[in-house]
Design goal:
eleven-stranded mixed β-sheet, three-stranded mixed β-sheet, 15 helices, globular, about 30% helix
Length: about 500
Amino acid sequence: MENPLTPLAHTRQGSVLGCSEDAFHVWRGIPFAAPPTGALRWRAPQPPQPWQGVRIADTFSAASWQNSDYCQQVGGGDPGRFSEDCLYLNIWSPASRTKPLPVMVWLHGGGFTVGSGGLPPYDGKALAARGVVLVTINYRLGHLGFFAHPALEQESGERVYNFGLLDQIAALHWVQENIAAFGGDAANVTLFGESAGARSVMALMASPLAEGLFHKAIIQSSYTLPDTPREAALAKGEAIAAHFGLENASAGQLRALPAEAFWPLEAPLKVAPAPIAGDCVLPEPMLDTFFAGRQLPMPVIIGSNSDEASVMAEFGVDLAGQIEKMRREQRLGLGLIRLLYPGVKGDAELGRQVCRDMAFTTLGLVVMQAQQRVGQPCWRYWFDYVAEAAHDTYINGAWHGNEVPYVFDNLMLSEPSCHYVNPRDLAFAAHIADYWVRFAAQASRRTEALPGPVNWLACVRGRDRLLRMGLNKHAGFRLVNRFMRARLSFFRRVMRHHVKLD
């Protein structure tokens, strides 16, 4: 492949001119689907319209409608302007390259209600510098992205509720068709995401519509909250329509509602932080697919952080209240749980660890076992690193989302870490980014280890291994066997029988 002199690329829709920034070419705001507005609201994304001449791609697009203050608080930064016309992607690629490079496609988190692909922590230069083409995308959020109503069911030959997931699938189709023009190898695509983005990765691994669109997956802090059943989603859709004065609403009346009217809705009308099961995207609940080992077969990294309970308030969970409720209802499991957490004192701390492991940590064991059923490697991690200057803030370990700027090696571009990180923190972030890129470049069904400060061994042939990243806030790595196996096996059985803390 010749080294391009300018960031001019030719897609199937037309030519796009990006920017040259240091040793990289960057394209921002490339449309991967038609604007999902008007008659296209709550429909599967359609191909973008071709254009004549050269389209300037130097500015991030609008994000889907959302709460800006909340995104800045928990979502990674200022999402900028909002529009229903939000289906655009961004690309970072080394300006000089001699062969097609591995592609990494990022799905942002934010509970399916906030976020965008253009937030500062997701800047792709540091990963591109390691020899990959990095793609970030927007997708429809909130009720614009996840919505069911009888009137919409009646107008289509197939059920569609997960429009945001269909957006992600459309972006992956676009990557398959066009990424070679940006230096990427369409035959080596890694899909990765955090929180709702990681939940999206798992949903696409469970979707028959995503087969062949990506080849490896990285799942960062996904969660076990069940998918919303079709019946519950339809009932919520009717309640939302009634809230706007539309009893027995038609599809046309629903589409005439202002796009900005949906995101301020509060419980019980707010969107759930989980997709909807029962449509063409997710014919069955995602967890059922993984328990049965029916997910798309590919190499996987999965892990979570040591203080995932930091996000539990957003799920409406009272940590100490969960333990008190178990005691009040005399649930038999409380005695066993106390045995599984020796030395943990007080309902608040016990609730923090139980809810963390039930909602997040156990998913690593579930996915590892699902991977072994399909004969694919699984690399597990536990992220427990806290920047030295932040030890007094993150007293219980790494919060939900804390690993993201380490993965992107963007501590200096992220709040609040840009104000206090030191060289040791930066060196630790570089190791994490190296592991992620080596997975994208090297992992295959036959790979058993990723090189790094510690040779990261995959869970293959029944081996239960995990890489501890941080070692109680210190910049170290250690491979451990059967990490939390007793408690995670217990919670896996609870999940398997559809019994959960509520």
